[in-house]
Amino acid sequence: MIDMKETTLKLFCILLFISMSANAQREAANWFFGVNAGLDFNTGIPVSVDTGQTNTLEGCSAISDADGNLLFYTDGVTVWNQLHQMMPNGTDLAGSLSSTQSCIIVPNPSNANLFYIFTTDVVDAYNGTNQGPSNGFNYSIVDMTLAGGLGDVTTKNVNLLVNGSEKVSATLSTDGNFWVVTHRNNQFFSFKVTAAGVNTIPIVSNTSTSIPDFNNIRGNMKISPNGQKLAIAHTLFEPVQSGSLYLYDFDSTTGFVSNPSFLGDEITFYGVEFSSNSTRLYATGKFFESESISNIQVQQYDVTAADVANTKFIVFDYPAAQITPSLSGSLQLGLDKRIYHALPSSKLSTINSPNLLGNACDFDFESVDLGMNFSRFGLPAAVQSFYESIATIENFCLGDQTTFTVISQNNVIGVNWNFGDPASGSANTANEISTSHVFSNAGTFTVTAEVSFSDAPNQIFTEIVVIQEVPNIAPLFTIQQCDVDENDSDGLSIFNLQEAISVIEEDNGDDNIDVLFFESITDAQLNENNIANEFYANSVNNQILYARVFSYIDCFTITQVRLNVSSGSNLGVYDTIDVCEVDETNISISQIENILQEDFPNALISIYSTRDDALLLENQLTDFSFVDVNLTDELFFRVSYGSNCGFIGSVQLNIVSQPTVEDQQAFLCGQIGAAVELSFDESFSSYVWSTNETTPSIMVTETGTYTVVVTNSAGCEKEVNYTVVEEPPIVIDEIAVQDFQDVNTITIVLTPDTDMEAVSYSINGGNTFVPSNEFVNMYPGVYDVVVRRGECDAAAETILVGGFPKFFTPNGDNTNDTWELIKKEFYPNAFIELYDRYGKNLVNFKAEGSWDGTYRGMPLPSGDYWYKLTLESGRVVTGNVTLRR
């Protein structure tokens, strides 16, 4: 089948939405989660970062400023600042590393320097009872004006609910403040955050569904980005594994939750998330059968439908290899308006177009690489309103009128548009509520909409739009194929449409295009009934197919593809060939190619196991392909001229055994003038050595691998390796290096069975050999360690002694002006931190950097300073350096 995954809808590459509250745009631009995992969304595409300090099983949260600069992040227990250091007083928050939604960060709506970290309860805190004590629902306050702008936790663990759950979500209220909502038993609690802080008296909503057992307080809860809906997943562990999913109305004016809608209980639900326009709901869950864990499933629901439960669509069933214990992983919207799915892995999966129904939502399995770091079950929570999309944007082809249609639950009274396209002149701005724009060229544009409401605070929405060119290709391509059967006159065969794609890509000069094939031009124009199989059987010779060529699904060109079958191209059984056996699983394919090349000069010869493979250019054989010599007596070949098939035929094989001889080894003493003979018996018809000698034996004076090609009487060759090595009487078992010390030492340890008579040791060779295996007071650097017995049989290794200069003098005389790691080129990814005697961090830099004795551009006084070196291996070294002026 043709893989249509990336050819269906590439909306996530074409249309990226970012919407924020007034005076805010990129608060959710940085994520830190899992095991040191991080993503930066500031370019519109997530970029992996590896500076994060989290090591959490589930919930976490992060906050950035309006320009996307990281402020701080937390796992609900510890708070790290933008330098990835623990914030003052930022430990022992009342969240938990194993709480579903351990925490969420909410800004003060009127003070850009004040933030509230809400932390949730956790099953583990109940100590086996349903009454407590528990963590409860709490909040802490971060003031970013403190600690030199890096922030300080000023108030910690203010209790709002004695007992809670592992659920929390937040959204804008209609008056420009925020609602923070949590759940317990059969009640929702909505706490309002205003300029005055957190109102500790919640709005309480009672429901008919109760979850009284503390073992069942797990599962995600999310408010829709437009603040109109609330979804909750109940992950039930007692009395048996089960789950349930509900959808409610949420009133962002009053904070009330109402109108429950039961969506399902067939799986153990865990993750929930809405699409950016709040029309679709997604949920994850696991099937549990006979107390054994079954597969993970991602589901979609149409929130706009009258019967939401009946719109369930299975977006993806994870393969068995991805099944993990107990939990099905969280879902979270990103700034690019894709929904991300976390499971224990070094990659995240994505729903690329979550606003679209069914398969068009485009689930992409493990599409985002986290580098050397790992996700677990949680992703960073944020105020859901940060992700809202207000405009439906259509038409992304260069030259089209790109339309922006505003749809909002609130009353929009005005929109000021800036299309980020200054080359379009005065057309770069508009003030219609719904508008259109013709972009001046292909590329990425940041479109800003300042929206005014009569019944809600003003908001700023940023839409990132990618405009695509329409492919420029020839109107007709002809693909030639050989006959498929013995009837050379019927003009019928099977075509590999991937070959047609390659020809079209070459004509377009770009392999980053997609091609769909259709039998009629009407289907091609409507993008209906495309040919799903990459192998196509034509119905008549010179049949025309229609190819829809595009980078983005709607920016397309239609071209014709003629399927031509060459008559008389089936050669049948062409010849019988003697072919040499390489081994019991390989024969010399190149030998067959060379023999056929003589009959078909200037053609490309390729060999296959079956006629269909030859016809469809599948599974081509090489000298390294597995061929069972006991079962194979016929192979098929294809003769091609350019991209056209000339002939297809087969050859009968007479397999001839190769010479029987194995690789050899010889030993050479390391003494000057030593030599060794390499020899074979004289039963072979010829010998060709890599030294160009042609005798059965040769003398060599150097170690190394010598090759000889021997040929038997049948003409089959075999290349034999003759390896010459030094005799191994001395083996270094270990070289122990004690470095980064005041006195560095090197200790050489030989294997226990080494004859120690006349053994001596040297650093950097030369004539200075000593009987002691220990060298002390070694200056940092690279050394050659040499061990020998008498004047022969030496063993040597190169080692590295690490260290720093003990002092430096930054006085501008170009001598010792900077302090840096000695031989720093050997310490990739090492990281150095410098502190004064009071423990104040002065500077941090990687191994390739250096320190000039200043702090923030000002010279520091003479004295001792302390360093911490963290090597790539994880080793940590501490010490001090003296600065002299």
From TrEMBL:
Keywords in alphabetical order, please. Answer: Signal
Indicate yes or no for the key word Amino-acid biosynthesis: no
Q: What is this protein called?
A: Gliding motility-associated-like protein
Question: Which residues are in the PKD domain?
Answer: 385-452
Q: Which InterPro entries match?
A: Ig-like_fold (IPR013783), PKD_dom (IPR000601), PKD_dom_sf (IPR035986), T9SS_type_B (IPR026341)
Organism (species): Kordia periserrulae
Q: Where is the signal peptide?
A: 1-24
**Matches recorded under SUPFAM superfamilies:** DPP6 N-terminal domain-like, PKD domain
Record flagged with keyword Iron-sulfur: no
